[in-house]
């Protein structure tokens, strides 16, 4: 993620790595952008605008509607890096989201959301497995955060893990309850950089589990010691909310919270 300053437009580079063994936000060597080509379609609201030889998708939120897109390709595992520029807001709640979601009644989802929250921004992540969500973690945003992993969700036989269903990429921009008509239209920009996903068929996730995919290899099952340090320090300094410590919502510590490092 990259962000240049509190008063400039926010620019985030976001990564999700979905392994058959572990999911985490990952730092990426950012070389080149993949073009959207035909790999997206409008799901609701205003149609996405494709800019600059199809590398950038712009979504619009105005007084009529927000906007959302979904990929045509389905993924079974992978590493997804997205450069996101959230709309500039002064005193509003505009929600810009990038997420991977399965298409079934048992919803699996890995989600990044940028909340325009007055002059500040919050980065929220959520994980939904088999329709069970409310695993939010939120960070106050700092300056250069691109290289910092912010969430690890370990695979463990006793904990549900989102590796049972194929998923589509999604993006959207929405009215999150307070929007300022004078600031409209809001534009959220999505540049796909390094989408290293295993494209598959709806029901064929097994083919995405092998070590021929770099993100499945053992050396990527854990954070490096450098990444781990950054991860711990970001949580210490910038964490705004963690469902793992929310005893009102979860009187008992959720199982996955005990082994999250
Ligand atoms: C289009 O993309 C190129 C290469 O990334 C960049 O140098 C250029 O500034 C972009 N143009 C616009 C209008 O965004
Ligand atoms: C934004 O959402 C809020 C809460 O749902 C609603 O009261 C308001 O009218 C919406 N604003 C616009 C411009 O759609």
TrEMBL record:
Gene3D superfamilies: 2.60.120.200
One of the record's GO molecular function terms: hydrolase activity, hydrolyzing O-glycosyl compounds
UniProt PTM: Contains at least one intrachain disulfide bond essential for its enzymatic activity.
Signal peptide boundaries: 1-25
Domain GH16 span(s) in chain numbering: 34-243
Domain of life: Eukaryota
Primary localization class, coarse: secreted
Alphabetized InterPro entries for the sequence: Beta-glucanase-like, Beta-glucanase/XTH, ConA-like_dom_sf, XET_C, XTH
Record GO cellular component, one term: apoplast
Catalytic EC class: transferase
GO biological process assignments: cell wall biogenesis; cell wall organization; xyloglucan metabolic process
Keyword list, A-Z: Apoplast, Cell wall, Cell wall biogenesis/degradation, Disulfide bond, Glycosidase, Hydrolase, Secreted, Signal, Transferase
Enzyme Commission (EC) number: 2.4.1.207
Subcellular location: Secreted, Cell wall; Secreted, Extracellular space, Apoplast
Entry function: Catalyzes xyloglucan endohydrolysis (XEH) and/or endotransglycosylation (XET). Cleaves and religates xyloglucan polymers, an essential constituent of the primary cell wall, and thereby participates in cell wall construction of growing tissues.
Entry-linked PANTHER family: XYLOGLUCAN ENDOTRANSGLUCOSYLASE/HYDROLASE PROTEIN 8-RELATED (PTHR31062)
Family of this protein: Belongs to the glycosyl hydrolase 16 family.
Protein name: Xyloglucan endotransglucosylase/hydrolase
Organism of this sequence: Raphanus sativus (Radish)
Gene: LOC108858757
């Amino acid at each position: 993620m990259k962000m240049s300053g509190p008063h400039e437009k926010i620019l985030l580079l976001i990564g999700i790595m979905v392994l058959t063994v572990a999911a985490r936000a990952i730092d990426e060597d950012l070389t080149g952008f993949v073009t959207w080509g035909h790999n997206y379609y409008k799901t609701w609201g205003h149609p996405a605008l494709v800019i600059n030889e199809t590398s950038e998708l712009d979504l619009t939120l105005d007084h009529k509607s927000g906007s959302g897109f979904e990929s045509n390709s389905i993924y079974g595992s992978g590493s997804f890096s997205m450069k996101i520029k959230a709309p500039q807001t002064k005193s509003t709640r505009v929600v810009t989201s990038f997420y991977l979601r399965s298409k079934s009644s048992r919803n699996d989802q890995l989600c990044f959301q940028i909340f325009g929250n007055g002059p500040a921004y919050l980065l929220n992540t959520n994980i939904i497995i088999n329709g069970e969500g409310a695993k939010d973690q939120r960070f106050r945003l700092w300056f250069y955060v691109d290289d910092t992993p912010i969430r690890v969700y370990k695979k463990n036989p006793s904990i549900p893990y989102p590796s049972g269903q194929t998923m589509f990429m999604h993006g959207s921009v929405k009215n999150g309850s307070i929007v300022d008509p004078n600031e409209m239209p809001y534009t959220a920009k999505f540049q796909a950089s390094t989408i290293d996903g295993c494209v598959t068929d709806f029901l064929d996730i097994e083919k995405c589990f092998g070590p021929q995919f770099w993100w499945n290899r053992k050396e990527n099952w854990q954070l490096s010691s450098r990444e781990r340090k950054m991860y711990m320090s970001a949580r210490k300094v910038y964490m705004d909310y963690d469902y793992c410590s929310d005893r009102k919502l979860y009187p008992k510590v959720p199982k996955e919270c005990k082994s999250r490092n």
